[in-house]
Amino acid sequence: MDFKTIVYGCGDGIAKITINRPERMNGYNETMVKEMCAAIDLARQDNDVRVLIITGSGRAFCAGGDISGAPESRSRFHGHPMGHMLEMREGFISW
Q: Which uninterrupted H or E stretch holds 44?
């Protein structure tokens, strides 16, 4: 799987996920959450993995949720001052 917001690597019994959005202080978004879940599933399915390390690139591990959203978003919350946050929260709850 090709990841856009994280880097996943595995070797010698160690899986490593690096949150890779340093320009946003690694703030998470819906894409990152999906990719993190997929990477964790990869590690869980690998019987050789004994350790999972999660780290962040740049100067911050994770600044929290990135509520800036994508400008092309046209969710039912479009135009609401907190629309991106509401959209992200709704998407996470469905998981």
A: helix 30-45
Single pTM value for the model: 0.74
Using DSSP's 3-state secondary structure scheme, residue 55 falls into strand
Geometric angle at alpha carbon 13, from 11 and 50, rounded to 5°: 145
> What is the rounded CA–CA span in Å between residue 65 and residue 28?
5
d(Cα 36, Cα 3) in Å, to the nearest integer? Answer: 9
DSSP 53: E
Q: Are 27 and 63 in contact (CB under 8 A)?
A: yes
Tokens of 31: 């894409």
**2 band by pLDDT with thresholds 50, 70 and 90:** very high
Token pair of 7 as six digits: 């880097």
Binning pLDDT at 50, 70 and 90, where does residue 75 land?
Answer: low
